[in-house]
Design a protein that fits this description.
This protein is an alpha+beta fold and 143 residues long. It has a single domain, classed as CBS-domain (Roll). It contains 5 helices and 5 strands, in the order αβαββααββα. A hairpin with a 2-residue loop joins strand 2 and strand 3. The longest helix has 26 residues. The chain is elongated and about 70 Å long.
């Protein structure tokens, strides 16, 4: 299975934020959209990613002043991205290797979606359920 199959189910909408936005604005946007990460962009260029993790670390390090800091000061740089034709297994390995929970999906150099660890786990559980049902049917048919 590929990342494309996950994107077809969940959609390709990606919440973005400007690097000059405040950390407070990013936290408010995450809460309002009920998501865990925002892709930081300037025009059509991806600069990084800011997630709940970076925001928590910023408040832990800087206290209340973190809210007025810029997203660019706390975001993840050097993102690992994936393409829609990548296998779900490969993306699971990349997420584990890079210790990230979100990965932007790029198609022809453009942002085509975002995959979270929750999306991957949900997809994998659905695959396992399907495999179990098929094996159960084969077993019962053979009896």
């Amino acid at each position: 299975m590929t990342i494309e199959s996950i994107l077809k189910r969940k959609g390709t909408d990606v919440a973005t934020i400007a690097p000059e936005a405040s950390v407070k604005r990013a936290a408010d946007w995450l809460r309002a959209k009920n998501i865990g990460a925002l892709v930081v962009t300037r025009e059509n260029t991806i600069l990084g990613l800011v997630s709940e993790r970076e925001i928590v670390h910023a408040f832990s390090r800087h206290g209340e002043e973190a809210g007025s800091m810029h997203v660019k000061d706390i975001m993840q740089h050097g993102l690992t991205t994936v393409s829609p034709d990548e296998s779900v297994n490969r993306v699971m390995k990349l997420m584990t290797q890079h210790r990230v929970r979100h990965m932007p999906v790029m198609r022809d150099g453009k942002l085509a979606g975002i995959i979270s660890i929750g999306d991957v786990v949900k997809h994998r559980l659905e695959d396992l359920e399907l495999e179990t049902n098929v094996l159960r049917d084969v077993y019962h048919a053979a009896r």
